[in-house]
Amino acid sequence: MSLPSIARLRAPSRARLDFAEFAPVTAVLCTAVLLSACGMGKPPALGNEPPEVTVQPVTVQDVPIVPEFVGQTESSRQVEIRARVSGFLEKREYREGAMVKEGQPLFQLDRKPFEAQLQVAKAQLAQEEARLVTAEANRKRIEPLAEKNAVSQKDRDDAIGNYRAAAAGVEAAKASVITAELNLSYTSIRSPVSGLASFAKVAEGTYLDPQNSLLTYVAALSPMRVNFSISENQALQFGEMVKKGVVRAPKEGDYRVEVVLADGSRFDETGRLTFTDASFSQETGTFLARAELPNAKGALRPGQFVRVRLHGAYRLNGIVVPQRAVLQTAQGNLAFVVDAQGKAQVRPLQLASMQGENWVVSQGLKGGDNLVVDGGMKLRPDVPVKVVKTLEAYRVTPDALLTAPPADQSQPAAK
Fold first, then answer.
1. Which residues are bridge partners to 102 per DSSP?
2. What is the pLDDT of residues 217-254, one digit of tens each?
3. What region holds the Multidrug resistance protein MdtA-like barrel-sandwich hybrid domain (predicted)?
4. Is 64 in contact with 313 (CB distance < 8 Å)?
C-alpha cells in the first residue's frame, strides 16, 4: 500500500485522538457555566463596594380602610304612569326620554264621554235637590197638623221618611258629580314626580282599559340609590377585626359613600349608607346594602353599573409601605430592612390591602424599621449595604370624604 493511502486511513483515528485530548477541558468549562447560571457557583468579585439602597422609616398610624364593591344605580322613586279610566288615548304631550316636572301633562284621553257623564250627574243632582225641596215643604206642613191630631200618624211618618230619602238622594247625587269630575280630571294624565320619562308604551288612538293601562315610567333622579352586595365572608372577617380591636368602624354605621363611574372617573357628589339587609340571601351568600346620594345634575341614570367605595373605617396601628418595596416571590411577599449594623435583613410580610400605590402591612414590620424602598432586588441577608438616600416617613393623609362637609341630601330633584 502506498504512503498516501496509509495517511488517509490514519486521519480519522487522529481526529478522534484530538477530541479525546480536549474533552476534559470542555467538561470543566461547561460545568462552570452551568454552576454560574444556577447561582451555585461563586461569581468573581467585582469590587468591595456594598450595594446602594434607599430607605424609609416605618411609622405606625391609623390607616383608612376603603372597601370597594360593584353596584347598580336605581331610581329612588320610579313611578308607573297608568290610565285610571277607560277611554281612547287622544294625545301624547311630552317628549320621550326627556325630563318632566311634577304635575306636567303627559297624556290626554278623549274628554267628551266624561264631560257628558258629568252633565248627567249634575242633572241628577238638580233633580234630587228638587225632590228634597218638595219633601221638606210637605214635612213642614204635616208636622203641625200631626201635633193637633189633624192627620194620622202614618201621614206624618211618610212625610218624614220622604224628606230623609230625598236628602239621601241629594248626597248620592253629589257623590256622583264628584266621581264624574274625578273621571274627567283623570283624562289629563300628569306626572306625579319630577324625573326622567321613558318612552310611550301605547300609540295615540289606542283604547285603554284596566288590562291595557300602562303608558310609561317616570324615574326620579335625585336622590339616586346605589344597590350593592356584601359577601358573608367579608362581613364576618370585618366583624371579627372590629371585635379584636384591629379595626374601628364608624359610629352607628355612618359610612360615607363614593361612586366611581365605568370610565374610572369619580362622581362629584358623595352620599350615605342608608340601608343594610338584616338577612343573607341563600342564593348568593350575600346581603343587600343601599346608598343614596344627590344627583341634582342628573349625571347618574338608573341601571348603571358603578363601583362603590365605603369610607369611615380605620385599621388601628397600621403600617403603609410603598408597593415597590415589597418583593413577591414563590415563598410569599417579603421586604428588606437595614438593621443597626448597616446590614440587610429579610422580613416576610402579610399584606392586608392596597391603598393607592401602597400596601397596608398587617404583619412583618414594626415602627422604627428602616425599610429598603429601592435597591432590594440585589440584596441578600446579612450583606452590608450603603444607604444613599433616606425618604421622609410616610404619613397617611386624612380621608378627604370624612373631613369634607356632609353632602346635602335634601337637594331638589333634577329638572
1. none
2. 999 999 999 999 999 888 899 999 999 999 999 988 89
3. 77-209
4. yes
E strands along 104-172, which residues? 105-109
Q: How far is CA 70 from CA 179, 278, 298, 302, 400, in A?
A: 49, 20, 21, 15, 22
Give the per-residue pLDDT at 10. 40
Single out the residue of 206, 211, 210 nearest to residue 92, CA to CA: 206
Residue type, 380: R
Q: The whole model's pTM is what?
A: 0.69
CATH class given for the domain over 68-75+221-314 = mainly beta
The distance from CA 9 to its chain's CA centroid, rounded to whole angstroms, is 89
Find all residues with CB under 8 Å of 324, minimum gap 6, and list them.
373, 374
Give domain 82-217's CATH number out of 3.40.50.2000, 2.40.50.100, 2.40.10.10, 3.40.50.720: 2.40.50.100
pLDDT in tens, 157-197: 999 999 999 999 999 999 999 999 999 999 999 999 999 99
Domain ranges in the chain?
Answer: 52-63+316-397, 68-75+221-314, 82-217
Paired strand residues for 336: 346
Rounded Cα distance between 63 and 146, Å, is: 96
